[in-house]
Amino acid sequence: ATGADGARYFTGRIRMEDTFGAGSRDSDTLEIFDELLRYHQDSPFKFLTQARMLALKREWDKANMMLEKADPGFCPGETDAIRGWIHLHREPPDLEGAVRCYSKAIDAAPRDEKFLLARARLLIRMAKYPEARRDLDRAIEISPSHHQLYRERGFLLADHLKEVPQAIEDLEQVVRLMGDQETDFAVRSKINSLRK
């Protein structure tokens, strides 16, 4: 998927997955999707966008109705990924259901590193650390300049798999990719603590 609609949609998607629950950032994400719908009503992203907006508003049934209208062949894996996100954020969360949905998304779009990252985060939450590591390794092979992948793997290696040298290397790669000024405090702090 390309073009201005695609760029807007994927900016919103990334923001939605990385910052869910961060208050004003949810409203910023809604604004991105709302603009896409307002000015591009015939966009092929229309139903996916509406589904994401409704999910952010926690209108789960309506979101699922929009997903039924979306063309699954248009943006492979996207409908399953949104379903996974819904499983994850409902009360109570259905982590197994979310993993199944993200696995379907990965089957449909095996080179989309964001689906692998989403499933890896779920697997970490479920204490399935080796499986999460495999997803992150694969995602890094696909997208070696995506700093978030190294950050996620670095913390996984440091906190759960106790692979300190590789964890330091991954977190230092985050600094290299983001630049010294842009790297968040948690990454710097973790590097310092691992070097002691």
Structural overview:
Helices cover 76% and strands 0% of the residues. The radius of gyration is 17 Å and the shape is globular. The chain has 196 residues and is mainly alpha-helical.
Radius of gyration: 17 Å
Mean pLDDT: 86
Apparent shape:
globular
Catalogue the unreliable spans.
20-24
The number of helical segments is: 11
- Tell me the structural class: mainly alpha
Distance between the termini: 46 Å
| Helix share, percent | over 70%
Please write the string of helix (H) and strand (E) elements. HHHHHHHHHHH
**Largest sheet descriptor:** none
The count of β-strands is 0
Strand content: under 5%
Summarize the structure.
This protein is an all-alpha fold and 196 residues long. Helix content is 76%, strand content 0%.
Q: What descriptors fit this protein?
A:
196 residues; mainly alpha; 0% strand
Topology:
Elements: H1 3-19, H2 24-39, H3 46-56, H4 60-69, H5 78-89, H6 95-108, H7 113-125, H8 129-142, H9 147-161, H10 164-178, H11 185-195
